[in-house]
Specification:
about 170 residues; alpha+beta; 5-stranded mixed sheet; 3-stranded antiparallel sheet; about 20% helix; globular
């Protein structure tokens, strides 16, 4: 188990966070149309996994907005914004904000993703949700960059994620 903080208080995070150079675990999550969407759906593309607790919090919403901006300048790259929010809420947020360059995925099914990617908040008030993290994958699903954000109320390092895509 690893540990991060929520408002300065330590919380435990279950699972194994992927290391740079590792092969990313396969996953199947839920897309906006309520259908299953697998990592394999993006074969041959680079992937930025923007993982966070809920799109209904300020920092999470900011990360989705920022990655939507970043996505405009990335070739052969898809930004997957992954949270426990229902696809309806994710679609409503992106629609209201005019965000069209990111793909939202829900852990409502495929909750093993949380443990497989080492982002399962195991303790604290947000237990059961995902910790904030960014995992950048190459076309072959090898991890190019991985950041488990040490404080849930902080934004991820966008520059490091973009730099990993070189």
């Amino acid at each position: 188990m690893s540990q991060v903080k929520f408002k300065g208080e330590p919380v435990e995070v279950a699972g194994t966070f992927p290391a740079k150079g590792a092969q990313a675990p396969a996953f199947t999550l839920v897309g906006n149309g309520l259908g299953d969407v697998a990592l394999a759906s993006y074969a041959g593309q680079r992937k930025v996994l923007n993982i966070f607790p809920s799109i209904d919090t300020g920092v999470c919403a900011t990360s989705v907005r920022r990655f939507n901006e970043v996505a405009a300048g990335l070739s052969n790259t898809v930004v997957l914004c992954i949270s426990a929010d229902l696809p309806f809420a994710q679609a409503r947020f992106c629609g209201a904000e005019g965000l069209e360059r990111v793909v939202t995925l829900s852990t409502m099914r495929g909750r093993e993703f949380l443990d497989d990617y080492g982002v399962a908040l195991a303790t604290g008030p947000l237990a059961g949700l995902a910790a904030r993290a960014v995992v950048v994958l190459g076309e072959d699903n090898r991890v190019l960059h991985a950041q488990l954000v040490d404080e849930l109320t902080h934004e991820p390092d966008y520059d490091a994620a973009i730099k990993a895509l070189g």
